[in-house]
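Show me any protein, fold above all:
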Amino acid sequence: MLFEHGVFTAADTLATAHALMLLALGLPAHVLVKALSPAFFARDDTLTPLLATLTGFAVAIVGGLVLGGVFGAGGIAAGIAFGAWSSALALIGRGAATFGFSIDAVARWRLPRMCGRPRWRWVGCCG
């Protein structure tokens, strides 16, 4: 109802929904980057978060170009999610090597569930 008017069709709505779902897979990674970066800043290490962000940016660009060419807008969204996860994993890895950062058992249990199957069902014109 919000989108489908004018030249925006039901197929466009479905493609937008798929792109948003793929983008949502990167949200936990963005939260991790936001939460982990201050640990490096507190140790006067501003280079590590910068390099992790640049790595994520490069992965997002390459992923967007490769996957976008194959899957369209959904591929670009997936490339952005991959970039976010590469940044988060770079910070986790560097934190573990530098100051012994580790993810506790509760976080290891919850994190995959954040990216798992949603508990709601898409209801609307498309599905």
User: Anything to note?
Assistant: The mean pLDDT is 86.
